[in-house]
Design a protein that fits this description.
The complex is a heterodimer of chains A (405) and B (66).
Chain A: E1 6-9, E2 12-15, H1 17-29, E3 34-44, E4 51-57, E5 64-70, H2 71-77, E6 86-96, E7 101-111, H3 114-130, E8 149-154, H4 158-170, E9 176-181, H5 188-201, E10 206-211, H6 216-219, H7 225-233, E11 238-242, H8 250-254, E12 257-258, H9 262-269, H10 273-356, H11 359-363, E13 368-370, E14 387-391, E15 396-400
Helix pairs in contact in A: 4-9, 5-7
Chain B: H1 3-19, H2 24-62
Helix pairs in contact in B: 1-2
The chains are: A alpha/beta (405), B mainly alpha (66).
């Protein structure tokens, strides 16, 4: 408060109201120009006033902030504001030194309805999508049977009860860790981020983030960039079940699995114990059947191999016996055959001998002429008047040689 | 002499006799030898069969009741 002049009363330093107000006003004037969100109440505009006055109210706890804007400026905006509308006001804090009143000096006002909200959300959604936060490839599968399930929810919420009921109905022995937290209002997003981190530190292997249905504003924290990023960065898979079926807060997109309701989330996070048991029983039964069948098949095979084994030696002996008997049969016939063959050879030789004998020649009309000494082969071997014997095919006769030539 | 050798020799003798080239005296000697071999083979086969029967009976007896 350099400009403020203090009065001295002995050892007491005292400021005048004017100097105090001026000092504070100077200090406040150094604060930056910022955007503030609130609901419009007590809007006062008079033709004769230089400024339009209004009070901004925080809908969550009713905190209020007086504000003013130059009338010309206000009229140019053509907002037609009525009490209760949500606005974003761009301005800086100011102390009206004459009255010691603190207010917001507005430079401009923008209506911020659901449409604007949606547009802002849409921009955030595009930005996060471009970063790949909602990509399918980032989605992790849920654990088949979580050992520890984290539940982040509002305190005393119906959503909490729905999740717990669905989980314990399906899997009675499920281990649930519940983190109750703020789920609406301006502090909700950061509170949920903190809860998410705390519950992960407890070693859960899946997280259910849930709240029941609510107004558009109620669900806004679930589209808060900080929470959406925390969900995407969560070390374990996250199931998001926020609001009703038609609500799609951004945390739903960043979550690994989106459930339409808290009950649906409960069903997704654990398998049905009864069904699991039934399937296990069925598997065991079929395993037993299969083992029995295999055993039976092997028994049959062994049995048949055994039967063949027992038959095999007898068959072998039988085969050898047949071979031996066949050989013996051939052996028995062989000498006789041999004799037959030799006899045939003998007869063959005899007949060939017969062919070589002269008798067949004689039969053709030839004659053999002999002297006492030998067969006559030349006329020089006989002399006229000599006696010869003539042998014919049948019989013979004696003769004398008439002459020789 | 084992069964296989005996049967092999018997086979060779039969083949030789069947070819009919052996001199008669030798053929008769071969025949006699063949008959000896045949007798040996028969005895071996009978003995084997006897053992098989015996073994089969033992197997049957020692089989557990199904």
């Amino acid at each position: 408060m350099s400009k403020a002049e203090a009065l001295q009363y002995g050892d007491r330093k005292v400021y005048t109201v004017a100097s105090f107000n001026r000092g504070v006003a100077d200090w406040i004037a150094r604060l930056p120009t910022i955007w503030i969100e609130g609901e419009v109440t007590e809007l006062r505009r008079h033709q004769g006033w230089a400024n339009v006055f209004l009070t901004l109210k925080d809908p969550t706890d009713g905190s209020s902030l007086p504000a003013s804007i130059p009338r010309g400026q206000f009229d140019a905006l053509r907002l037609d504001l009525v009490d209760g509308e949500r606005v974003h006001v761009y301005g800086r804090p100011e102390l009206f030194a004459a009255k010691g009143e603190f207010k917001l000096r507005a430079l401009t006002i923008e209506r911020f309805g659901e449409g604007d909200h949606l547009a802002a959300l849409e921009r955030l959604k595009k930005k996060l999508a471009a970063e790949g936060l909602f990509a399918e490839a980032r989605k992790r599968p849920l654990p088949f049977l979580p050992r520890k399930i984290g539940l982040v929810t509002g305190n005393d919420a119906a959503a909490k009860r729905d999740v717990i009921t669905a989980v314990t109905t399906r899997f009675p022995s499920a281990h649930l860790v519940v983190a109750e937290t703020l789920v609406q209002g301006p502090r909700a997003a950061l509170a949920m981020v903190a809860s998410l981190q705390e519950i992960c530190a407890e070693g859960v292997d899946v997280v259910v983030l849930t709240r029941g249905g609510g107004s558009f504003d109620d669900l806004l924290p679930f589209s808060d960039e900080r929470l959406v990023r925390a969900v995407a960065a969560c070390p374990v898979p996250v199931i998001s079940a926020v609001g009703h079926e038609q609500d799609t807060p951004l945390c739903d997109l960043a979550a690994d699995v989106r459930a339409s309701t808290p009950t649906a989330a409960g069903r997704l996070v654990v398998p049905d114990h009864a069904e699991l048991t039934a399937r296990l029983d069925a598997s065991r039964t079929s395993l037993q059947h299969s083992v029995r069948r295999t055993l039976e098949r092997q028994r049959e095979r062994t049995h048949s191999v055994g039967a063949r084994l027992r038959r095999a030696p007898a068959l072998a002996v039988e085969r050898e016996r047949r071979t031996t008997e066949a050989l013996h049969e051939r052996l028995r016939r062989a000498p006789l055959l041999l004799v037959e063959r030799k006899r045939a050879a003998l007869e063959n030789a005899t007949s060939r001998l017969r062919v070589l004998s002269p008798s067949s020649t004689l039969a053709r009309g030839y004659a053999i002429v002999r002297t006492e000494d030998a067969i006559v082969r030349s006329s020089s071997e006989v002399e006229p008047g000599g006696r010869v014997d003539v042998q014919l095919a049948e019989g013979g006769f004696g003769a004398r040689v008439e002459d020789t030539r | 002499m084992n069964f296989e050798d005996a049967q092999k020799e018997l086979e060779q003798i039969v083949q030789r006799l069947e070819h009919g080239q052996a001199p008669l005296d030798e053929a008769l000697a071969l025949w006699e030898r063949g008959e000896q071999l045949y007798k040996l083979c028969r005895e071996r086969l009978d003995a084997a069969e006897g053992r098989i029967e015996e073994l089969a009976k033992r197997v049957e007896e020692s089989r557990p009741a199904v």
